[in-house]
Amino acid sequence: MSAVEEKLAQLGLTLPEVVPPLAAYQPAVQSGVYVYTAGQLPMVEGKLPVTGKVGAEVTPEEAKDLARTCALNALAAVKSVAGDLDRIARVVKVVGFVASASDFTGQPGVVNGASELLGEVLGDKGVHARSAVGVAVLPLDAPVEVEIQVELAQ
């Protein structure tokens, strides 16, 4: 077990199986020393635990927890191509998409769920640049979707 997976276990988390693609793409690809994940939905055992818009059917607190799940799924996708999460030199960028009610403006707080998980698990290597974007709808009516880009140690 990698040191990163040991840290996940200390947090009471397990790295899930990679979420299979919903369309014509790969969950993650490596280019040089970088791994880019596809947008990861908050799937748990092949299902979305909650659907709807944040600020309407989904509370910001629920959405923040879902963003954590997205980040965990993104780490699984990274491992699927990198082989070992201990190869992560740093998380470079996180992009979070939040399906938002028309008056919801708390996207950064929602995406903090993903950012905070990466920091808890990776420490300084988890510090990253980020975008948090409100959108009208996401695949399968998911409330949140997160993609990450990481640099691997050479």
TrEMBL record:
InterPro entries attached to this UniProt entry: Endoribo_LPSP/chorism_mut-like, RutC-like_sf
Protein name: RidA family protein
Pfam families: YjgF_endoribonc
Domain Endoribonuclease L-PSP/chorismate mutase-like: 6-148
Superkingdom of origin organism: Bacteria
